[in-house]
Amino acid sequence: MRSNDKITGLVTVIFGVLVITNSRGLANLPQQEYGAGTFPAVIGGLLIAFGGLLVVRGLRSNAPWMIWTNEVPVKRFYLTLLAIVMAIVAYILLTPVFGFPVVATVLLSVLLYCFYRQNWTVSVITAAISAAVIWSVFGRLLQVPLELGILEKVIY
Question: Which domain holds residue 56?
Fold first, then answer.
């Protein structure tokens, strides 16, 4: 099933409004010009802006609201759902021991290989670059504490 951009955009706008509304209740950080709700509010604003663009694009097209393309095999759906849940559980359990960079790279590599059926080289390179970008943005730029695990002695 494929939905029209009107529906996707509207859901995105609603989600953005909810993010901004809920971020207003976050406490301010001491000695900071911005509070803990600043980053979620920016993300919410971007969701509203890009969701609005999708709504406009959907209104310009005369496409139907929903198109039934083809059936998703039930077995594949459950295997995908199981893989995602297992990856989240593995992340929670393994990150304190091995650290974010190692666990994120391994889990992303496995998920990319399983979902997209590319070769391992492409999956590992994509996962390593993604983990490095996430680490740079959250760990360094936004100062979100990400577990280093076994890498703590190497990095510091």
Answer: 2-67
